[in-house]
Every structure is written in C-alpha cells, then in structure tokens.
Fold these 2 entries.
Entry 1:
Amino acid sequence: MLRRATWVVLVVGFIALVFTGTASAGIETITGIVRAAAADAPEAATVKVGDVAYKVTKDDNGKTLAKEAKDKKAEIKGTVEEKDGVKWITVISAKLVE
C-alpha cells in the first residue's frame, strides 16, 4: 500500500512539473497596427505592438481582421499563446481605433 501511494505521488508530481513548464493561453487585449504577413497571403496578418509582433491565427475572425483592418490601428481581444518563441493571437473581437 505504501509503495502504491509513493507511485501515485511521483506520477502526480511529474504531471504537475510537465504542465508548469508549458506556456498557457490567456485572454488579452492588445492595440497595434495590423499588417499583412506576406504579399502573397492577404488572409494572414500580424499585429505590431511596440517591438512585439503577434501572428494572427487564420480562422474566420483572423481573416476578417486581416481584410478589414490592414495597415490600420486596431484593438484586439483574443487568446494569446507563445509557440516556439512566437506570439500568436486568436481573435475573439476587434475594433478599429484612432
């Protein structure tokens, strides 16, 4: 019984260690300039906030943002994740700002 309890504690501890090291997604609001990611991919966009660039996930909301806010300043609410050192935002809502 003690041996089984020890294994359970070790497994739970390992799982906690693994998940603590991963970047978690969180909802944020960012304001920046929306740019086309590439000339040959107008549905792909990045948002520049100071020195930080966020790649926009290419779902329906992201494609709409890329199309309607290109080269404009926008306030974007979305889920932000970091993958391989690159920040990604999945757009929940967006509005143009002056």
Entry 2:
Amino acid sequence: MALKTARRTALVLCGTAITVATAFAAETGRIDGRIVLSPAMPVSRIGEANERPIAGQVAVIGQRGVVAAQVASDQAGNFHVDLPPGHYTLRVESSSRIGHSPPVETTVTAGRVTKTVVTLDSGIR
C-alpha cells in the first residue's frame, strides 16, 4: 500500500512541475543569439564573409540601464536567454583588450524567439 501512495505522489508532483514550467515559459520570450568577431582577417576576398564565431559573455541590459542578465556563449558563439517581454540592449563583455562591441537593440515578446547577432569589432583594418 505504501508503494501505491508513493507513485501517486510522484505523479502529482511531476504534473505540478510541468504545469509550472509551461506557465513560466509562456510569460517570457527567448533571445537566441550568436557572437561573431569581425573582421576576422586583415585581408578579405570579395563575396566572402570576414567574420568568425567566438565564445564570450553577453550583458543583457534592460530598459532602465540595469543589467538584466549575463550569459555565456558556447565555443561556436551561440547563446540563449529567457527574459520577460521588453526592450533590451546586448553587448559583448570582453576581458581582453581586443575589440569592442557596439550595442545591439532587441525586443523580447512573450512566447517568441528573437534571433540576433552580436558583433565584437576586432579593430583590424
């Protein structure tokens, strides 16, 4: 009898967790982004992209100028972050002295994925 009670409790707890996760996801949106280094080489050929993905940290700044999140990318420069709906500014946080990141403005909508590219300017000219 104790085993049956434990199974019922586990099912109820799992059902509750799924419900909560679904409700939370519906109230947020997601930014799927990629960090690229550009230009990646001092010489480029016409018609070829002169950029490459780079790992890094992205600061997500909210409407009031406060950092809403910091997210690390993978080695291919890909990152994602779930946020409440609103307008955000993204900037690569670089610990090296190479390059700078112009801010990227983006808007998060509940239940939607916003795709963006954040560029780290290498300074190569």
